Amino acid sequence: MTLKQDDNEKIDTFEIEDVEVPDAELENQYQQDDFDQEEEEVYETFEQEENKGKVSKAGSFIFDLVIYAIIIFVCIYIIPNYVMQRTIVDGSSMENTLLNGENLMVEKISYRLDMLDRFDIIVFYPYGRDMEEYYVKRIIGLPGETVQIVGSDILINGEVLEEHYGKDPITYAGIAYEPIVLGEDEYFVMGDNREISKDSRYPDVGTVSKENIGGRAIVRIWPLNKIGFIN
Predict the structure, then answer these.
(1) Which CATH number fits domain 89-229: 3.30.200.20, 2.10.109.10, 3.90.1150.10, 1.10.1090.10?
(2) pLDDT of 120 strictly over 90
(3) Confidence check: pLDDT of 74 > 90
(4) Is 198 one of the catalytic residues?
(5) What pairs with residue 141 in β-bridges?
(6) Are 184 and 144 in contact (CB under 8 A)?
(7) Segments in the chain forming alpha helices (H)
(8) In the annotation, is 137 catalytic?
(9) Catalytic one of 93, 108, 197, 200
(10) Among 119, 152, 131, which Cα is nearest to 218's?
(11) Which of the two residues, 31 and 212, has the higher pLDDT score?
(12) What angle do CA 40, 45, 48 make, to 5 degrees?
């Protein structure tokens, strides 16, 4: 079959008319839609990051709050009851080593670990921990030892104890006139001012059990001119 020239021209014209040319306004709309979509994605990303920041700040605040609460708890309860505590000397029974009104720091670990030594100065509750009254005295006899006072001498397991802490010679033996055998958790204590000290020689005080010890005095913190370790 042959085609005439006119038919060819019609076909060419049809093919040309069949090509769609994008409308300028429609193209601008497409561009605007793309821009709006990108802007929305950016906003959503920013909003997500902002929310993450808020969550992070809230978590950080709660964490700090917990840390502060733990620190306060340790300072108010743990340290004073199990580590270190301030104690004030009341009276003159430990002269000339400790004077009335002096402030001491008492550590609360040694006696729990059975690390107390002879001549350590301890704080104890003579009438039980449920009573507020406490004494400050020096350890003379250790658990398991036999203590006796003969004249002005202190005997430990029958031998004279060499020591220089007494302000004056002993004139009152009290219950230590007879040998006292200390139990596994008992200590015999005396004040350095032995003429006036109410200590283990007296029946209403007696030997000191471990459960009634409050701690070991280690440092004097007041007055300022006497700050230092205690011996």
Answers:
(1) 2.10.109.10
(2) yes
(3) no
(4) no
(5) 188
(6) yes
(7) 5-18, 24-73
(8) yes
(9) 93
(10) 119
(11) 212
(12) 125
